[in-house]
Amino acid sequence: MEDPAAPGAGNPPTNGNGNGGGKGKPAAPKGREAFRSQRRESEGSVDCPTLEFEYGDADGHAAELSELYSYTENPEFTTNRRCFEEDFKTQVQGEEWLELEEDAQKAYVMGLLDRLEVVSRERRLKVARAVLYLAQGTFGECDSEVDVLHWSRYNCFLLYQMGTFSAFLELLHMEIDNSQACSSALRKPAISIADSTELRVLLSVLYLMVENIRLERETDSCGWRTARETFRTELSFSTHNQEPFALLLFSMVTKFCSGLAPHFPIKKVLLLLWKVVMQLLTKQDSLDIYNERDLFKTEEPATEEEEESASDGERTLDGELDLLEQDPLVPPPPSQAPLSAERVAFPKGLPWAPKVRQKDIEHFLEMSRNKFIGFTLGQDTDTLVGLPRPIHESVKTLKQHKYVSIADVQIKNEEELEKCPMSLGEEVVPETPCEILYQGMLYSLPQYMIALLKILLAAAPTSKAKTDSINILADVLPEEMPITVLQSMKLGIDVNRHKEIIVKSISALLLLLLKHFKLNHIYQFEYVSQHLVFANCIPLILKFFNQNILSYITAKNGISVLDYPCCTIQDLPELTTESLEAGDNNQFCWRNLFSCINLLRLLNKLTKWKHSRTMMLVVFKSAPILKRALKVKQAMLQLYVLKLLKIQTKYLGRQWRKSNMKTMSAIYQKVRHRMNDDWAYGNDIDARPWDFQAEECTLRANIEAFNSRRYDRPQDSEFSPVDNCLQSVLGQRLDLPEDFHYSYELWLEREVFSQPICWEELLQNH
């Protein structure tokens, strides 16, 4: 039976021009099918199920704890338990930890902290392992994974209340400054997990405390809630004349990348740094809702006729759909009633309200004035004399959708402060956790960004091993390399999982920093962004996506029976090559999809409203790379891919737009547009040449002026007040040293009486 879809089935063959072809021209239908196949491939149509993924600040609590440990570390769970039980039996007779009263538990923890202050490094490590066993949930006395997680959280709050965090922070300072460990690691040809034992124990205790205290639950007692707020304050602000904890971890990252401390367990450092910054600062979900909501300012109130012409149903629908479109995974406010199926299925118009910037209104009026009256009025948007009535209506509509962002307000305030530094006075900067973090990072921020991107490059699956690249596997490689196929497969999974977790932590950390700095001040955000761009962050992210993203997202680099807390409760089954290859039954890898979305959001933030950086996307040929990511059927990931394609569409040429109409339609349907947005055309390309250097230099000058004005305050500033009154100056009391009184007469004789003074010359000069 003839296939109806095959060439020539019921249809005459045609040549490339669509005309009928005779015998001897069978290649034309094949060429047409090849073109259709290529077209389907370019549009990203592939059999991939829709992924049920919920984006959030982090993964589930158990998953975030399990990713702290590599599978190579699993034997150390038993070591930690043994160290605790040996110490516990010497202090408590005939009882277990879970049987003790709270006061007895506190007394035992106090004893542990006292025993930490010993000279012997080996004894101190055993006590630290006992504390780690408590933080891990005393799994030897638990029957289920739920019990382990419960007691881990309980013990972490108890440890914090007894001062364990401060004690371990001091030990971490000592271990970082341990030059002997650094020099020993530098002399070794191959570094293994044994070289970072002490650091891994300390960082694990600190991470478990941060992660468990960070987790909020409705059943938490008032004491736990108070402890959480105190802990946040302790992490945010400098205590005991020490820098904030996040800056210490940043210094560990730079020290590791410089090659001075290759034994640092960098995965644990990055995970802890990410969670500490998250604990300083506001939740990412809250920032998403705050940054993405529409704060339109209607300059002219609507008339009664206009209000009557717009039905209540349409206005409500626009608002509800706008909230849903901003972030597909942020639920609408509880006060909103759910939409009916009929109204969702047949919306009127696009599901968002368009935004208009002040610059858009100015540009529109400049063009209109040049066309109708022959001259312009600069930034004046109120004078409409001489313009026809339709232009009046257009300006009114534009102003109704005018959107003034926080960044615009901050830039305007900064310009005023630069113009009038004396009359406006000194700016009062609130000491928020974000502000303190920026002040601490300011002078070393370029090194921090370069270090993070170096590690991200080394962990990217598309990166090839090079001799000059940094070794990020020091805290996953065992002392003895595997000798069997099964051991090699297990280590291979562990290494891939290790790299995925590093990518996850760095992508989340960078996104979190950009979001908070942008909310705190736009030039803080621009400072971080510019150093990321200068460190080649844009091509690095594109290189990351230049792979089979679908395979990366569905990769199964995990062994569920070896994950914490499962491995502490159950007897480990015998692993086989089949069980290792099978992996878990999940549809996708949560951390990999989370990382991809973070990197896309990061790329969006770096390129938004930056013409030169958008042209970098074009020059690096990002369009085919990004389009391949559309094969992943996940709404949030596709939204940010389409945003990146939208900003460069006008520069890709008419042929590209013609060949990718499905992508163009998706952009039109899913991505918000400006009122007078010409994203699908190339009208202003000739008027805007690509001058990367000039644009970035102007931005850099503004950033440096901001940093200099706010953070560089020398004592001899030209704007500092000067006392010109002779009596006031001579009447000031000066504190002189005690020995001056004894040598005063000698000073007068040497410096005053014995020095000849030519009064005529002195009067002439003055």
Automatic annotation (TrEMBL):
Residues 388-744 form the Far11/STRP C-terminal domain. One of its GO terms (cellular component) is cytosol. Residues 1-49 are annotated as: Disordered. Residues 48-343 form the Far11/STRP N-terminal domain. Residues 30-43 have a biased composition (Basic and acidic residues). GO terms for biological process: cytoskeleton organization. It holds the Pfam family N1221. Residues 1-16 have a biased composition (Low complexity). Belongs to the STRIP family. This is Striatin interacting protein 2.
